[in-house]
Amino acid sequence: MTDTAKRFSGPTLLTASAADQYTVPASTTAIIRNIHVAEGNGSATSLTLSIGTDALAKRLFSAVSIPANNILDLPCFIVLSGGEKIQAFASATNSLVLTVSGVEVS
């Protein structure tokens, strides 16, 4: 097995529609170790982030407000299997920048 530290997504400027940010390659396990979100437009904006296609039961964050000119920096340990994906969107386009980092194990 090989462990590879990797930036899974970003920095990516989010839109107001759910969009794929990362898909785990086949025959690979991915471990999300950090989720970093920066609000740089000067007004509070909400983040929604899901594992898989966006749905309430799949959300890690559901309309979590990021204060104006602030950040959310979450160290974590979330395991994803081959083919699973991360989707994210903001309550306003071009307000939040998302970066997701972790380790791929193949």
If you had to describe this structure to a student in words, what would you say it looks like?
With 106 residues, the chain is mainly beta. The chain has no helices and eight strands. It has strands at 3-13, 19-23, 29-39, 45-51, 59-66, 71-80, 85-90, 96-105. The termini are close together. The mean pLDDT is 95.
Entry keywords:
mainly beta; four-stranded antiparallel sheet
Give a brief outline of the structure.
Helices cover 0% and strands 64% of the residues. With 106 residues, it is mostly beta strands. The chain has a four-stranded antiparallel beta sheet with strand order 1-8-3-6, with no helix packed on it. Strands 2-7-4-5 form a four-stranded antiparallel beta sheet, with no helix packed on it.
How confident is the prediction overall: mean pLDDT?
95
Beta-strand residue percentage: over 45%
Percent range of helical residues: under 10%
Q: Helix count? A: 0
Gyration radius over CA = 13 Å
Low-confidence stretches: none
User: How does the helix and strand content classify structurally?
Assistant: mainly beta
- The global form is globular
Largest sheet: 4 strands, antiparallel
Specify the oligomeric state. single chain
The strands making up the biggest β-sheet line up spatially as: 1-8-3-6
How far is it from the N-terminal to the C-terminal residue, by CA? 5 Å
